[in-house]
Amino acid sequence: MNQDQNSETIIAIGQLCSTADIQQNLLTCQKLAKEASEQGAKALFLPEATDYITTPGSPPTSLSLALPMATSPFVLGLQSSAKEYSLAINVGIHVPNASGNKVLNRSIWISESGDIVGQYDKVHLFDYAAAGLKESDSVEAGKKVGGPVETCVGKVGLLICFDLRFPTASLHLRSRNTQVLTYPSAFTIPTGLLHWETLLRARAIETQSYVIAAAQVGSHNAKRESYGHSMVVDPLGRVVLDMGGAGDVEGEESTLAGGKLGIARIDLGRVREAREKMPLMARTDVYE
Fold first, then answer.
1. Residue from 102, 122, 155, 260 carrying the catalytic annotation
2. Among 37-46, 58-67, 107-116, 164-173, where is mean pLDDT lowest?
3. CATH of the domain at 250
4. By its UniProt entry, which InterPro entries does this protein fall under (predicted)?
5. Active site residue 122
């Protein structure tokens, strides 16, 4: 159900450093869910691969940790927290593919009643030789970008991390009246420094939507480190929340495992206002 078009809604963003310890990752998320509820948030946004992050180049390890949503203690635990706190949760997870030889990188929407009401499998996979990362070794690409999910914070389009570089995906969701775009992410530090904020603001500006990007942060293991800087961007491209990254504050590294909560407010009236004041009508008829 959509919120009133002229009211502000409090949302929470959880920034954390997931490891291969699924149980500890769940405990961190449940702590953040409790804090989000206490802050009056209607929804909690968590990063890509929140359930676990393994060492790059270890597909068997990743596959051994992935479970179907119906039997995953991680997913079931978050469903329980969502219901307990009447808090919607968007989170990135892994599930086995149909063949059982790879995983799917999935974003799910858990309603405030604890039900999974939306899901999306990452279409664009991150193969980045400079960082020794080849997602396609262990992940099967999703097959489609669908429409938005009707939620307590508006019509939400689910995308993931590297999808951020492909505006066709967000523009497709905009054509389906999406009001909020989500990009749960685990950006590398080199690409984050260069592109993260620019890409998030561009997607917000061209779709005149809120963009919410919960991000992994810090050192997950000896070979993997994430940029952080979870952000919320408004429909005009203004950054309304930037949660910072590893190393921004001296001594902060030791607290990353415990997670960090950010609070922001979104107002769907601003989405409507932006679109009414400057209608963006693509001339799709002129491209041959």
1. 122
2. 58-67
3. 3.60.110.10
4. C-N_Hydrolase (IPR003010), C-N_Hydrolase_sf (IPR036526), Nit1/2_C-N_Hydrolase (IPR045254)
5. yes
